[in-house]
Amino acid sequence: MTAAIETTEAGAPIKREPRFSWLWQLLRDPLGCFGLILVLLIVLAAAGADILSPYDYKALDIKARLAPPSFEHLLGTDNLGRDTFSRILHGGRIALYVALVSVGGSLVLGLILGMLAGYGPRWLDNLLMLLFDAVRAFPVIMFALAVITVVGPSLETIIFVVIVTSVPGYARITRAATLSLKNTEFILAERSLGAGTVRVMVSHLLPNLIAPLLILASMDIPVVITIEAGLSFLGLGVKPPTPSWGSILNDGYSFIRNTPWLVIAGGIPLIITTLGFTFLGEAMRDVFDPKMKKDR
Amino acid sequence: MSGNEHVLDVRDLSVSFRTARGKVRALRHVDINVPRNKIVGIVGESGCGKSTLINTVLRLLAPNAVIEDGSEVIFQGDDVLKMSNSQLTDLRGQRISMVFQDPMTALNPVISIGTQMTDILYRQKIPMAQKRKRAADMLAQVGIPDAVRRLDDHPHQFSGGMRQRICIAMALMMNPSLLIADEPTTALDVTLEAQIIHLMKELREEFECSMLFVSHNLGLIAELCDEVIVMYAGEVVEQGEVHDLFHRAQHPYTRMLLECDPARIEETRQELPTISGSVPDLIDLPKGCIFSPRCPHRYEPCNESPPDHYAVSDQHSARCFLVRDGR
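The joint structure predicted for all components is written out below.
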């Protein structure tokens, strides 16, 4: 009797999910597909900057200063006659580097601290929460300006500032999720089967926490890119010869009376990146969040 | 009976919880034992200390719990209450393991069954393929068809009954000497309940492990267990072999519990019988017998001092003055 009942249940053809079914679901969503294409475009452009760029981004072409787009200079040149297209490609590299390192860093740190706060003893939780709240109370740009004034502008400073200001966000989400998971029966069951604290945290809590955090991170990338561009625009980001979308925008701002092309060339990649990562993040949330799933 | 025949010996166990209102004395002087290869059932209403008792055996109590001095939980000769954390990790899952009430929440939803099962074997240095084979064998043994293929499935792809089978398979992975089952069928429907009980009986023959089976379903206890312990408000009120207890119940609480079992009601009536009153406040205990406020047979000695365990026969004792006085 036992076997009969269970076999009909299991014997019904079970739809096997292909390994990358989530990717297909992502591609079926038009916005997700669009986001993915934009993101791939940005990433490939940044990664292949050395091959794709027609000129050295530092090379001056004094005769063609502030030139409009032409076949010679695809997006024109800046006030020093440097090829804007090459500078945009290399600027993308900087932007992605800052975004990936600082989002990755804050994700990892936030995850560790959040899990410690959620799973650890009460006093540690209180201490960490106090710290997070204190950090969150600083306005990001003010904090950035203060740090840059003390340490001096550089890529590392930007990364540091972004990590410090975004760790509390990740940590809070991780902590909240950990707290609600901590008292579930399956964690108790794992402990009753001999899982130690580290094992519970790493192999059982982590897989439950990582999906929502990755989506949050993907939506955070454009924010970080804008922070980097913003600081570079203010002259507090990367130092001059290194191209950045923000500094290109700043040049465009200074020479807006002579040519609109620098502002356009600096602005469009920012728009593309922001849209791409936001669409991708939202589509990923829809795919991975079981509550948002409609027909499966 | 010598001490070695018992897998588990709980002696004079008292556990309290510190709360804002005061100390909740959840367990008071509990003495029970689980003989080798026997199934011992624990019955009682909600809040009588069943869960506290089994959580103490595994040392998985809430942080505000205090185990009072003089308590001993001897498992195969070792005192669980004196174990260090690493000893406890060794104990759990390998020597004692547990099956939980609700199979819907007892499995990690984002990890495949195979990974969860092989993970239990982390203490064994054997190749992964061998671990997976063992997991598949266990699944087959608890009646999951197509076990090898289903190792890669996630918990939500199984039905409730199958999940409970998986939980049982996981608990038996390391071949423990004692299996604790905390109301393993409460969350399942009646047909599945019968299947699970049947399975547990079979597995007990096969794995030769003792079981501590917690339930408030008297029918199940009668069906499955060899010995029964009746608990009330943190005390053991009656214990004995299953036959004695069901046919010659001595303690008024046990008798009333049996009367309340809908399956045992013989005449037709409009209302189900209940035990009037509720479990006493465990912060402020009555002076006499713990059950006296609800007891229909209470007389003078009941209000004076708490009764001791009085033997009814060799294997059967009850904590009631009626037994002492032969009334």
